[in-house]
Design brief:
The protein is of the alpha+beta class. Among the domains are: about 230 residues, PAS domain (Beta-Lactamase, 2-Layer Sandwich), CATH 3.30.450.20; about 130 residues, Histidine kinase-like ATPase, C-terminal domain (Heat Shock Protein 90). Helices cover about 55% and strands about 20% of the residues. The strands form 4 sheets. Strands 2-1-5-4-3 form a 5-stranded antiparallel sheet, with helices on both faces. The protein has a 5-stranded antiparallel sheet with strand order 7-6-10-9-8, with helices on both faces. It has a 5-stranded mixed sheet with strand order 12-14-15-17-16. A hairpin with a 3-residue loop joins strand 14 and strand 15. Helix 10 runs parallel beside helix 11. The protein is elongated and about 155 Å long. The relative contact order is 0.06.
Length: about 600
Amino acid sequence: MKLQLKMVLLNSIVMSISIITIGMFFNNYIITKLQDYAKQDMQSFAKSISSQFDATVQMMDFISEQQLGYMKVLSAIQLLSKSNREEIPPNFLLQAKREVESSLRTYTIGKNYYRVNFFNSNGVFVTSNTNIYSADDTEAVFHAFYSGTEDKATSVTLTPPRRDPWGDEDAPKVYSLVRSVRGTETPSYIEVQTLYEDLEQLYNSEAIQYDKIALINSEGKLFFSQLTQDQELELMTQVQKTPYDQWRLSDENGESSVSVVYSPYSKIYTVTARSSEGTNKIASSINSITLFILTAFCLASTLVVFLSSRYLTKPIRRLTKQIEMTSLENLDYGFDFSNPNNELVVLSEAYKQLLRRLTDSINRENKMRKLQGQAELNALQAQINPHFINGVLNVISYRGLASGDPGISTICDNLARMLRYTTNTKQNIVTVKDELEYVQMYFYLMSSRYQNQLEYDIHVDEDVSILPLPKMVFQQLVENAVDHGFRHTTDTMRVSLKGWADASFWHITVSDNGCGFNDSVLRSIQHEFDGLRDRVKQDGLHLKTEIGGMGLVNTYARLLLFYGSEVKLKIDNNLPDAGACVQLTLPLERE
């Protein structure tokens, strides 16, 4: 596939994916915001409706409460509610009714209420508007419509809309606030009635024609509804079974958007429902516009990529042709581009440098061939020398036994075993147990050298002895204690090696009773350790080629490369006792 075609395809795919991703995100963002705004609008609308209804109920409650705020009216109501009314003079009862009627009329003149009533279970009924009273049997009306009111736990009850029970068959539909009168011998009530058509005029206005409204109490009784009959049944079913923030309503287009506000004052749920048809149409329009814009952007980006790639690949094709013509015979052949762009200048210079490096590499290769033979000879010699030394040690061991000196034989045997351990290049990773065996041989040789002035003890837990580590780690720690710790003293040398493990790490300590370290040496070693740790983090395994020799720094470097950055090598003096202590902390699991 040609480079130009690859560039067109790759850039078109990348730009198309980017444009589509951004477009989808933007489209979803707009639709989500639209839905959020619609929910907020519905919630605000529901709160407004709830506030309007609460204001109406509050005024009705105020009227009913005011009637009981005057002692004359309250005394008249108590007299009319006596259980032994037959014992009360009729003129007293008539005067009490007039007092109550006068109060009801006084506080309802000019108010937007249908009427205000007082009634009790004795059959007494007093109203602010006697012209619209037609109930023949007041006691029968009370038991038919209000007999359950006295069982309410609260003193105020809202009754849902119904035909005025105190009127005739043509009486208008009203809803009422009924307040029970405390301190009467028989159940007595003040009722404030409001026409249902007032709610219809308020909620059927042109300003709210795009939402459907319903008012319903916790018992599932509707106070007002613009919902369909199926939606009303669905709503009444959910009132007593489902939390109001989970109410759902269906319509012919699917599920309507629903917002519910509960008023603790009136104990009425205000429900606003909005058909999803309008929102779906707007979302569909947004999707269509977004798709058109995305398609236009994708086509335009593809055209731009095609034209630009055609211009950019023209000099690249010339360079490709020149590279194809290059061979070992014409490496020094010069070439030039007329008016190349900046990228081609860099590319042509890189190609010239490549030719020069190739020439240098060929020259170095010829020199390396001459040195290869000598290197192979040296490698063979390096393999022969350890075998030769082992042979000599075996001869000395044999001569020691022959001369009756088994100590010489033991020394030679240990030295030969140590030599085989250190020169075995096939096994660079060993176990703690292998290292301890090597350290035991080293201590034996050092004890022989210092004529038993060296005392040592080794205590390592069994679960630590099977753990892996690089070869020649413990020997470096022990050798550091023997060679440097007792350089300026003739006292008996004591070296202790201990090993144990905890939940995540295992530890090795080597301590002695020597002269210890001075502060400057400790700071210098710690500085080397810190620098080495930083270089391992940056260069990783490339640091292997920069580590040479043996010693604590070399040991720390090899452990860092093997176990990772969690390795800790701490060197300190045994205070207040004499000597030094080297503690090695290694993770149980390698990085």
